[in-house]
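Below is a filled-in request sheet from our internal design queue. Each sheet records the structural input a requester submitted and the sequence that came back. We keep these sheets so that new team members can see what a complete request looks like end to end.

REQUESTER: design group, bay 2
PRIORITY: normal
MODE: inverse folding
CHAIN LENGTH: 354
BACKBONE (tokenized):
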């Protein structure tokens, strides 16, 4: 009987996780697809034009039309390309982009038929280290794709992208050390729960504004977004590291970039904007399931706001020169991060930060 009980518990756990994986996969692809429409609509609004509006009402079917077009287009592989690596590169890039979803707490636990259903695939006690380890693997997809294309422009775009990502990963990691010091944990759920005080408004952005600015800027660089889109400067490098790609392989690269934007917005929301916490969450007297649903809504509202800011910046700020980009990462952000760590340590020692 004990063996059957353990087996049933394991199967229930596995079933819950598989259901959550399926839901998150569908949500990730849906948001990535409709982020393309949102970006085009925001760009149109800022440029005083309409944007896509012929595929369904308000252009709502445009992402589906783009997806069908990508599937039906001819697959072209350059004759001198390394075929296996050329195909593998976009697969690596997309897979790595999706793997970060595993550690993100999407809301409070649900209670279904008296059983707790966690809205987090894995609550790792080294969640931040896991996220940085996975994000750093995305460089391989970019570098392999640029090299395997056997195109000097693709290779130059890949080198730019990889050096940019490696440079800003260091500042990004250093910017999070004060958050870890204040939360005394590397778990994203623990960091989220640490922001539940002050009636759900104990957000790290108010305690660590400099860390937020540095992390947000580094996230733009990691996602190759304007003003850090030197890897895809159409006027200089044609299309960057995916110049030779077409059809679904190109779609995987572009889709992966939007998935990365969604993941970055989720991580920023969790680390600095309270995650799934919202004002007076614990004082409303709601049932656990209602709190869970509202917490999910609060987190996604913050994520969509951050994504909007990403897109807003693209059509507002001009592109940096490459020397300016590297100077900002190495000579400005890293010293600021070190100073911020020292100040945070002093404030914790003086018990000003708890």
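RETURNED SEQUENCE:
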């Amino acid at each position: 009987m004990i063996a059957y009980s353990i087996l049933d518990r394991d199967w229930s756990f596995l079933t819950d996780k598989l259901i959550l994986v399926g839901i998150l996969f569908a949500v990730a692809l849906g948001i990535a697809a409709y982020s393309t429409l949102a970006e085009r609509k925001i760009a149109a609004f800022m440029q005083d034009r309409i944007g896509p509006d012929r595929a369904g009402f308000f252009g709502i079917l445009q992402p589906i039309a783009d997806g069908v077009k990508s599937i039906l287009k001819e697959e072209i592989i350059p004759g001198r390309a390394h075929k296996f690596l050329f195909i593998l590169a976009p697969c690596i890039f997309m897979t790595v982009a999706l793997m970060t979803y595993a550690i993100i707490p999407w809301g409070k636990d649900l209670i279904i038929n008296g059983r707790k259903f966690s809205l987090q695939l894995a609550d790792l006690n080294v969640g931040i280290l896991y996220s940085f380890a996975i994000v750093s693997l995305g460089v391989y997809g970019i570098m392999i794709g640029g090299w395997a294309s056997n195109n000097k422009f693709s290779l130059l775009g890949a080198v730019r992208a990889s050096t940019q990502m490696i440079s800003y990963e260091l500042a990004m990691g250093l910017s999070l050390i004060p958050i870890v010091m204040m939360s005394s944990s590397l778990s994203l759920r623990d960091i989220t729960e640490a922001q539940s005080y002050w009636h759900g408004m104990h957000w790290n952005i108010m305690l660590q504004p400099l860390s937020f600015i540095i992390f947000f800027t580094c996230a733009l660089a990691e996602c190759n977004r304007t003003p850090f889109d030197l890897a895809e400067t159409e006027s200089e490098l044609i299309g960057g590291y995916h110049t030779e790609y077409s059809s679904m392989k190109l779609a995987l690269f572009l889709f992966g970039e939007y998935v990365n934007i969604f993941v970055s917005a989720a991580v920023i929301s969790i680390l600095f904007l309270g995650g799934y916490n919202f004002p007076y969450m614990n004082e409303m007297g709601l049932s656990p399931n209602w709190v869970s649903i509202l917490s999910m809504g609060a987190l996604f509202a913050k994520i969509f706001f951050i994504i909007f800011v990403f897109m807003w910046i693209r059509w507002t700020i001009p592109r940096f020169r490459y020397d300016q980009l590297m100077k900002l990462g190495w000579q400005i952000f890293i010293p600021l991060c070190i100073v911020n760590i020292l100040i945070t340590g002093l404030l914790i020692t003086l018990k000003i930060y708890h």
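SHEET NOTES:
- Residues 69-349 form one domain.
- The two ends are 48 Å apart (CA to CA).
FILED BY: M.R.
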